[in-house]
Amino acid sequence: MSEPVRFRVRVMRKAGLADPEGATTTKALRDLGYTEVTAVHFGRDIVVELAGDDVAAAEARVHEMCERLLANPVIEDFTVERL
Amino acid sequence: MTEPAHRTLGMTDDEYARVVEILGREPEPAELAMYSVMWSEHCSYKSSKPWLRRFPTEAPWVVLGPGENAGVVDIGDDWLVALRIESHNHPSFVEPYQGAATGVGGILRDIFTMGARPVGLWDALRFGPLSDPSNRYLFSGVVHGIAGYGNAVGVPTLGGEIEFADCFSKNPLVNVMALGLMRRDQLVTRAAVGEGNIAVLLGSATGRDGIGGASILASASFEEGSETKRPSVQIGDPFEEKKLIEACLELYERGLVVAIQDLGAAGISCATSECAAAGGMGMTVDLDAVHLREEAMTPGEILMSESQERMLAIVAPDDVDEVLALAHKWEIDATTIGVITGGDTLEVRHRGEIVAAVPAASLSEDAPVYHRGVERPAYLDAVWADEATLPAGLDLGSTLLRLLDDPALGDRSWIFQQYDHMLFLDTVVGPGNDGSLMRVKGTDKGLAVSTDGDALRCSLDPRRGAARIVYEAALNVAVTGAAPYAVVDNLNFGNPEKPAVMWQFAETVEGMAEACERLGVPVVGGNVSFYNETDGVDISPTPVVGMLGLADPMPQLPPRLDRAEAGMELWLIGPERGDDFAGSAYCRIVLEHRCGRPAEPDPDVARRVVEHAARLAHIAPVVHDVSSGGIAVAVAEVAIRSGVGVRLDNGDWRLLLDESPHRFVVAVEPGTDLDVSDVASRRLGVFGGDRLDFGRWGTVGLSEASRVWRQAIPRRLG
C-alpha cells in the first residue's frame, strides 16, 4: 500500500472581522510588558491524510472539504499546503 | 454607467431628493451614509409606522411605551421591568452561530441601556424542515449561538418556541426577547441634555462589521448572486458584553450618566443622532477619537459600523475622569468622542475637516413614511372554502404517535438543555412548560413570560391568527399564576412593496391590537422585520408575541407539567367546538392539509378563561394550555412528563384533536371545587396505569409515546 498524501490546512479568521480571542490575548501580552505587541491572530491547523496517488485530485478534494466543513467560508479564510 | 451613490446604499431617488431638500445642498458622502442607514426600513419603520399607531399602548403601569430602546412597566414596590423583542433573521441566515449570538447581545444592550439588569432571555425560532441538511445546519448553529452567547454572558435562557415550515428554508426567523429588572430610581433614557456635556464611547473597538447591515441586509430581499451585498459578519464577544453590563450598572448606581444609548443598527450615526434629537440638542462628534480596529476606515464606515458591544454615554464634564476610571476598572475601553451643543446640528469631524453637519432630528424623525398599497389576496377565498375532509373514526393511538414525532410538538429538551436556565437562581418554572416563571427576590412577586407565534394559522387568516396568539400567550402566562401585564411584538413579514404582504401586515396588527385591548394589556414595544423574502418567495406572515405576566403573589407551588399523579382527575376548562381544524397539527401532519379558515376567537370567553387559569394555578398541581395537537397532545404531554398513564372518558374523537382556542386542562384530586361556573368545563378522565387510553378510539403505551416524543428532534439530527 502506498503512503497517504498529506496536506496541512490552515484556517484563519478573515481579515477585518472582530477577533475577541486575539484582542484579549493582545491586551494580556501588553499587560505583561510586551508593549510592542500590536495584534495577535488565532487560527487552527488541520492535517488531512488521503489515500491515492493523484496529488492534484487530492488537493482539489481537500479544498472542497474546506469549503464544506473544515472552514466556515463566511468568516474564515484557509490555505492548503502539501506536506 | 455607474449607479448613483445613494442607490448603491439602498436609497431611492425620492429619498435622496428629500435629503437634498433638508440640507439645502447635495449631501457629503458621510452624510449620505448616515441618512441611508437611518432611513432604512429596519431603522425608520417607514412602511409600518402608520399601522403601528393602532396598538393600545397605555395603562397606569406603563412607564415607557414603544419608541424607546425597551418598554418599561411598573410592577409595584419600586420595581420596574424592562422588556424588548427583536429579530436577527438575516444575520442568522448568513452565519447562524454569530447571527444568533449577536442577536442575543443586541437585545441585552437594549435592556441595560434603560438602567435594568438583564435577567432572562427567550427565543422564538423558525426553520425549514429538518430533512434538509442546510436547515439542520442553520437550526443547530442558531441554538449553539444562543447558548454560546447567553450562557457566557451570564443571563439565563428561560424558554421560547419553535416552528418548522418550508417557507423558512431560506429565511429562518430568530426573534430574541429579553427582560430586565431595576429599582425605580435607576431608570435612564437617551435624552442628551445639557450643553457642554461629553459623549463617551464605551466598549469594543470599531471595525468594518456589518457595514450597511441594517440598510441593505435587513431592508432588502435575498436573491441568488447577491453575495456582494453581504456585509462583513459581526462577531459577538459575550465577555466584553458582561463587562459592559457591570460597568454601565455601576455608572447608573453612582449617578454618573445623564443619558445613554447602545450602538446597534447604524452604529454611531444612530446613537449620536437619537441622543441629540431626544434631548432637543446638537452634538459635535470627533471621529478621530473613535478607537478603531482597522486602518483606513472612511468617515462613512466609522459612522455606519455595527461593531458589537459598544455604548454611548452622555456625561457631565466634571464626571468624565471618574467615568473613564470606572471603565478602566472593568477593563473596557472608553474615549470621549463628542460634546453636546446648543442648536440642533449633528456635526461630525474627521482629520480636521467637517464631514457631516445635519439637523440631528432629521435622521431619526424626518424619515419618509410610506402608505403602501394594501390588497387582500384573492386566493384566500379558495383557501377558506377548502376544508379538510375528516374521517368518521380513527386510531388515536397511532395518530398520537405521529403528532408526538413532529419536531414542533415533540420534546424540545435537545434545544433548551444547551441553555443555562438557572443563572441567578430565580427560575421557578423553566423551559419545557407553557410559560416560564421567575421570582423577584425579596418580594412575593413572580414574572411570567411566554413567546407565541403560529405562522400557519396566520397565513390562513392573519387577523384571527394574530389575535389567537395573543390569547394563547395570555393563557400561557396565566397557567403559572400570572395576570397578563404587557406585550412586546415581533412582526416578521415578506416584502412590504407587495400589496398582499401589506394586507397580511394590516390584518395582523388589527387582530393583535383588538386582542390586547380586550385583555386590557398594553403593547410596550416591538420590532418589525420586513423583506423576509428569498428568490421572490415571501415567508408566511409570522407575528410573534412576547407576553409578560405578573403573579402577585406568586403561587406557593406553581403548576408544572410533571406533577400529575395516579388517581387525580383530569378536567378541561373552556369551550369546545369540535370543528376547528384549519391550521391544526392533525391536518398539517396527518392529512397534509393546510387550508380552511381558523375559528374566530371570543374575547369575553378568553378573558374569563385566562382569569380562571391564573386562579387555579394557586391550587392545582397541573394547569396546561391546550394548543397545537388539541386535548390529545396536551394530555399526552402531562402523562409523559409526570410518568403516569391516563384513561379518558368516551367522547367524539374530533373533540380530542380539535384546536378551539381558550382552553386548558387541569389535574386535581377528585372532589376539588374548580369554581368555573361561567365557562364550559367537563371531566376528561382520570390518571393511572401505564397507557394513554382513549377508549374506543384506541390506546398507546406510555413508554412508547414517551420514546417517540423524546426522539422527535434528536432522531432528525442524526
Task: Give your account of this protein's structure.
The complex is a heterodimer of chains A (83) and B (718). With 83 residues, chain A is of the alpha+beta class. Chain A has one domain (5-82): Mth169, Chain: A (2-Layer Sandwich), CATH 3.30.1280. Helices cover 34% and strands 29% of the residues of chain A. Chain A contains 2 helices and 3 strands. Chain A has helices spanning 20-31, 55-70; strands spanning 5-13, 43-50, 76-82. A 3-stranded antiparallel beta sheet of chain A has the order 2-1-3, with helices on one face. Chain B is of the alpha+beta class and 718 residues long. In chain B, helix 7 (96-112) runs parallel beside helix 8 (133-153), helix 19 runs parallel beside helix 22 (603-616) and helix 23 (630-642) packs across helix 25 (702-711). Chain B is globular, with a radius of gyration of 26 Å. Classes of the chains: A alpha+beta (83), B alpha+beta (718). Chains A and B meet through helix 1 of A and loops of B.
Q: What labels would you give this structure?
A:
heterodimer, A: 83 residues, alpha+beta, Mth169, Chain: A, three-stranded antiparallel beta sheet, 2 helices, 3 strands, 34% helix, elongated, B: 718 residues, seven-stranded mixed beta sheet, 26 helices, 28 strands, 23% strand
User: Gyration radius of chain A, to the nearest Å?
Assistant: 17 Å
CATH class value of chain A: Alpha Beta
User: How can the largest sheet of chain A be summarized?
Assistant: 3 strands, antiparallel
Spatial strand arrangement across the major sheet of chain A: 2-1-3
E-strand count of chain B: 28
What's the Cα radius of gyration of chain B?
26 Å
The proportion of residues in beta strands of chain A is 25-35%
- Low-confidence spans of chain B: 224-230
Distance between the termini of chain B: 51 Å
List the quaternary state of the chains.
Answer: heterodimer
> What structural category characterises the helix and strand content of chain A?
alpha+beta
Largest interface, with counts of residues having CB < 8 Å to the other chain, equals: A-B, 13 and 22 residues
| CATH-level-2 architecture of chain A | 2-Layer Sandwich
